[in-house]
Give the backbone structure.
Amino acid sequence: MTVGRFAPSPSGRIHLGNILCCLLAWLSARKKEGKLVLRIEDLDAARCPMRHAEQMIEDLRWLGLDWDEGPGSGGPDGPYFQSQRTALYQAALERLEARDLVYPCFCTRAELHAASAPHRRDAVYPGTCRGLTPAQRAERAVRRSPALRLRVPDKEFSFIDGHVGYYAENLERDCGDFLLRRSDGMFAYQLAVVVDDAAMGMTEVVRGADLLSSTPRQLYLYQLLGLTPPEFFHFPLLLAPDGRRLSKRDADAGLDSLQGQTSAEALLGRLAQLAGFHPSGEPSTAAGLLEEFSWEKVPRKDIRLPERLFE
Ligand code: GLU
């Protein structure tokens, strides 16, 4: 059976990009008569207070996007808040440590920044702390608590994305040793998402193309932990009318502004039109879009929003 998920990070009010993500995840799973899990990715407790998570749950309900397991529905694989699942991440980390794949990194943000070419958004970690001796580690640990990094091999990790097709990265060359835990103790997204998607039995992951380049790292973790990866579908990003990436700062794209202008059905119909599978743009429930939806109709290039979403 197909199992898909919504995995929002409640760092603010839900916006058009999250809504499109949830709609596509819902349609992709429901089209195959699968089930959906809602998992709240609130590892960053300071940025993700409970009231935002509660608001997000309410917003999903308003949109009519339902889930079978998660907050409010229960289920066998809870808790469904990442902030309550840290023992699982710790256990996975210890398995990696036991294989000598993890090392402490004492680099400061400024050092990391200086070591990377300024135009690179995803800087390759140059391996500064990889070869420290035990004595050097002990000496640095007195002054600074370290982050933890995973050693990556000089090896290509590839997969066939259900929407964008073939994608590959050489982890050492294109990414470098990546973080599993920050110096403040917070587990990294890459580790948490793999542990949770596997523990919750996900067979498919639908998310924005900004996470495409995270997938090879996650595939490496699946391999190391002996877990089966899901199928991935990365959909194009929504851009603001001027071509910028849409962000939480775009107030018009937030649901508080949208709710004042329109209904859930009008919003879903319009988003489905922009995403290529609902030419009329007529208001519709999510279920009403099931027949028209197919991944082939969704564009592969980013989608630029019109100046006005609704006339
Ligand atoms: N929590 C992430 C986000 O809201 C999504 C992670 C994922 O889908 O893998 O951007």
The pocket of glutamic acid is lined by residues 7-9, 41, 193, 207, 211 (CB under 6 Å). Residues 3-84+236-304 form a domain with the Rossmann fold fold (CATH 3.40.50.620).
